[in-house]
Amino acid sequence: xxxxxxISSTGYQPVNSNHGLxxxxxxxxxxAPTFALLAVFCLIPFLWAFSTSMYSVEIGADPTFVGLAxxxxxxxxxxxxxxxxxxxxxxxxxxxVTVIVPLTIAKMxxxxxxxxASYWYRVLFxxxxxxxxxxxxLVWKSLIYGDNGVxxxxxxxxxxxxxxxxWLSSPSTTLWAVAFVGFxxxxxxxxxxxxxxLTSISDSVHEAAWLDGxxxxxxxxxxxxxxxxxxxxxxxxxxxxYGIQGFEGILVLTRGGPGFKSMVPGLWMYFNAFSFQKxxxxxxxxxxxxxxxxxxxxxxxxxxRSSEDVQEKK
Amino acid sequence: MKFHPKHLILIAILALAAWALFxxxxxxxxxxxxxxxLDKKPVKYVLRMAPGxxxxxxxxxxxxxxxEALTHVAREYEKFFPDTRIEFANVPSSMxxxxxxxxxxAQAPDIFNVNVEDVWQDTQKGWYLPLDDFFDxxxxxxxxxxxxxxxxxxxxxxxxxxAPDGHMYCLTYDMVETGIFYNKDLFKKLNLKVPSNFDExxxxxxxLKKSGHVPMTIDPEMLADWAVDLMFDQLYYPIAPLTDLNKxxxxxxxxxxxxxxxxxxxxxxxxxxxAHDPRWVDLFRILxxxxxxxxQDIVNLNPNxxxxxxxxxxxxxxxxxxxxxARDPNLGFxxxxxxxxxxxxxxxxxASGRPMCVIGGSAMQYCVSNSAISDTHDVxxxxxxxxxxxxxxxxxxxxxxxxxxxEPIFFLPNVIGVEPHAELKxxxxxxxxxxxxxxxxxTFDLKFDEIMRRMIPLYMDDGMTQDExxxxxxxxxxxxxxxxxxxxKIDFSEFDRIWEQRADLRKKYEGLPDAAR
Lengths: 314, 517
Known about the structure:
The complex is a heterodimer.
Chain A: H1 4-8, H2 17-23, H3 25-52, E1 55-56, E2 64-65, H4 69-75, H5 80-110, H6 115-126, H7 133-144, H8 150-157, H9 174-179, H10 188-199, H11 203-211, H12 216-227, H13 229-245, H14 248-253, H15 265-275, H16 279-303, H17 307-313
Helix pairs in contact in A: 4-16, 5-10, 5-13, 6-10, 10-13, 13-16, 15-16
Chain B: H1 5-21, H2 33-38, E1 45-50, H3 69-80, E2 84-88, H4 95-104, E3 111-113, H5 116-121, H6 132-136, H7 155-159, E4 170-172, E5 174-176, E6 178-183, H8 184-189, H9 198-210, E7 214-217, H10 220-236, H11 240-243, H12 252-255, H13 261-269, H14 278-290, H15 304-308, E8 312-318, H16 321-327, E9 335-338, E10 361-362, E11 365-368, H17 383-395, H18 398-405, E12 412-413, H19 425-430, H20 446-460, H21 466-488, H22 493-501, H23 503-508
Parallel strand pairs in B: 1-2, 1-3, 7-8
Antiparallel strand pairs in B: 3-11, 4-11, 5-10, 5-12, 6-8, 6-9
Helix pairs in contact in B: 10-14, 10-20, 13-21, 20-21
């Protein structure tokens, strides 16, 4: 709801909140359809999932109320521990590379003296965004990790034929192989987000840093990084959310195998819902993931400083 | 606005993009389902069929043209019933998920191919119609026929497809079986002969490996399906008089000694299929020992490629492979096929030594869904159902079976008087063997299948120890058993009585779990 005091801070006259509802009826009317659609397609299914998680639901059969039995079963499911371990590994790895690699590239582009070169580098880094992620996964699966793929062919060419491997189907390498899909992790969108952050740093800050003798890596770590913390925070939250919810990449690459060596909770939720017809159980997995994402997002917002916090402190 | 060369480039790019959006002309052939569905005329009954491998328009490997026989059969049928049109539908690769959603909303095709063991899981939901009464009646499209049932060639296999509830839910249209396809030229070069037992088979694999070839390739899913069932039968067949608790005369023709889910659950509770069951432990040890003679990457490898490129000496595959082997002009080698030979005492002291059983049988299993009675929702009064059954009867007339089944070289016709392709004759011999003691992969729920399908390759690739694997399987069986016991409301009291009666019999057999004694 629009808040009267928030409006007042912008310089408008304070208005009574009840009055505001009437006064801004047109605005509320305009957002109502959006809210209604949001409720129908997002909020109601979300609440339905909570309720369904308390039932044993098999497609084509009557649902039975089972209380917390689905949660209890998930707690004892042989896949739970390994899938959460995999999810934390893959998400941590993704956060790490998302923070470091695109930021480094953005800084390098930002530091180019030629505006034209800077523009073309941004275009080049952004161009692969048009390739669907599933196509990328399939390319990695067959052309890069395949028996005669890039990795194995390279190893054979340089005389390391004994190192060739079934990278995605070997229990010892599958998780690292999944994590390295997308190497060198120079996602165009992330580069652009960081680039935007770097361009928003005032020239006076750069000049002051130069006068104080802060250049090169020192300036990058002490000046640039703190001032793009908002971007880092945003990307970290997005990567964590995707890392916990996402599973389509693993579905394409390994289906969570061999065994459950690359299983993640989201994929197990999918299998239970649509393969095993255990909709209630799948909803319980979904609710657990929701609580986890909510908790991590709150922690991130509460304890992760943004660039505004840094500037306010200074 | 001033025209600049840049604009020309931009317009050219846009024109190219627009051109790329238009697909090439896709003129439907006479046979394609698209063509038949485009020529729509107003009719009272539009019947939908998902015919599996015989879908018109599909082009089998090395075939000169797409399949079209089923379209012609459908058009002939429509001449008998001008108020009816047959349409053909393809189903997505993840068929099971698709089917469940379609069936639950009564939107499934009237007729579709599905593994009937999957049907058995859901018979209590009313999604599938029992066909027993129709099979007892004459087929009007077959002269002098008194019972539709009588026209089927492989009677034992056909009748063996009855569900545990005693009803028949599918029409067994044709037959499939597996075999070990081998490169005859390579065998000749290495002086290898078709093996008569598993010891000889392993020697062949050793020789192939030594010569730098991959001895054998197989789809990893088939290890969980075929290999487990065949080895299981080899080790458990001798104790079948003890373990076969449920004698079903209707199914005994083909499924003699077959263990259904209720029997497996009961035996599991008695310690079978656990770490305390030496036969069970031996079964998976044998599979693990066999792994060294397969391709490096069994999970992601297309098993056909090494065989066709002559890198692999053998491939364990189903009879569909004959299509490419028989029709590929660039094959470059002579091929043969034999059946997996029996285990010997060298593999396990419990090996029966009897020939390996078969695990194939029915290929296309056409079931009728609840969509077929969508006009009246009553089997007795539904005219639509009569049209559906009529089409199935027409489809099984010998002339039509010959046209449809023998169009590709995939499977063997299951109707008397229709001969298979000569290249498929060896499979006819295989199909006269006894059927497996059970089908683990199709016994329990889909979660159990998924666990089994995943864990076997992992265990075979040393991703877990044998003890860990047996423990995972034990827990998976327990969970699946609890699930199916609740869903099917199984009563084990009769088995308790039979088990008590067999106390003396148990003393005869060695290697039983302690709990079973």
